[in-house]
Amino acid sequence: NAGVMQNPRHLVRRRGQEARLRCSPMKGHSHVYWYRQLPEEGLKFMVYLQKENIIDESGMPKERFSAEFPKEGPSILRIQQVVRGDSAAYFCASSRLGGTAYEQYFGPGTRLTVT
Amino acid sequence: AQTVTQSQPEMSVQEAETVTLSCTYDTSESDYYLFWYKQPPSRQMILVIRQEAYKQQNATENRFSVNFQKAAKSFSLKISDSQLGDAAMYFCAYTNSNYQLIWGAGTKLIIKP
């Protein structure tokens, strides 16, 4: 069973460029969560999506950040006009169903470096 | 506000000894889940153990066990017979009714051979 896949594992962008992070959930999982981890900190929730729906985006910055989970294909976290403060590890997790009882399985993360 | 606090930035233990990592949380909800995750240098987030708040019995997974004190809002992790492979960052996390995982800042565990 393939786990949660994220690519790329490492991404370097210059200030002002766009970053696209991809997440393929585990087989049979239709719920996806994105988290950001700054250096020396725990993870911070960003957004929770189901197929074609954003359920909770309360952790997403209001500008430059967007996320989608289309009917076909991976979930995409998009950061426009990146700034140095966006440098972090971005983790995707998936679960079979929504709700507090369902364990979230994590991908290996994408480390974004903005130069 | 819902918060998770890990008061120990770093802990060290001799190989084969026992170590306890502390975690406290703050919530007004009555039904929730608590987790301990391990993040080794590979940065992969690995679930170590989970506890349902409605269960009084403490969860156990092999050498890992928790001491869950609901009234005190405390959720500590005990690692018995520590092994070199246990060296990692350990994060305590809590799931709220919005399905978000709320995370502590982590405790770095060092295993001394």
In short:
The complex is a heterodimer of chains A (115) and B (113). Chain A has no helices and eleven strands. Chain A has 115 residues and is mainly β.
Structure in words:
- Chain A is mainly beta and 115 residues long.
- In chain A, 0% of the residues lie in helices and 49% in strands.
- Chain A contains no helices and 11 strands.
- Chain A has strands spanning 5-7, 10-13, 19-24, 31-37, 43-50, 53-56, 65-68, 75-79, 88-95, 105-106, 110-114.
- In chain A, the strands form 2 sheets. In chain A, strands 2, 4, 5, 6, 9, 10 and 11 form a 7-stranded mixed β-sheet that branches. A 4-stranded antiparallel β-sheet of chain A has the order 1-3-8-7, with no helix packed on it.
- In chain A, a hairpin with a 5-residue loop joins strand 4 and strand 5.
- Chain A is globular and about 35 Å long.
- Chain A starts with a strand and ends with a strand.
- The model of chain A has no long low-confidence stretch (mean pLDDT 92).
- Helices cover 0% and strands 52% of the residues of chain B.
- Chain B contains no helices and 12 strands.
- In chain B, the strands form 3 sheets. In chain B, strands 2, 5, 6, 10, 11 and 12 form a 6-stranded mixed β-sheet that branches. A 4-stranded antiparallel β-sheet of chain B has the order 3-9-8-7, with no helix packed on it. In chain B, strands 1-4 form a two-stranded antiparallel sheet.
SSE arrangement:
The complex is a heterodimer of chains A (about 120) and B (about 110).
Chain A: E1 5-7, E2 10-13, E3 19-24, E4 31-37, E5 43-50, E6 53-56, E7 65-68, E8 75-79, E9 88-95, E10 105-106, E11 110-114
Parallel strand pairs in A: 2-11
Antiparallel strand pairs in A: 1-3, 3-8, 4-5, 4-9, 5-6, 7-8, 9-10, 9-11
Chain B: E1 3-5, E2 10-14, E3 19-21, E4 24-26, E5 33-39, E6 46-52, E7 60-61, E8 64-69, E9 74-79, E10 88-95, E11 101-103, E12 107-112
Parallel strand pairs in B: 2-12
Antiparallel strand pairs in B: 1-4, 3-9, 5-6, 5-10, 7-8, 8-9, 10-11, 10-12
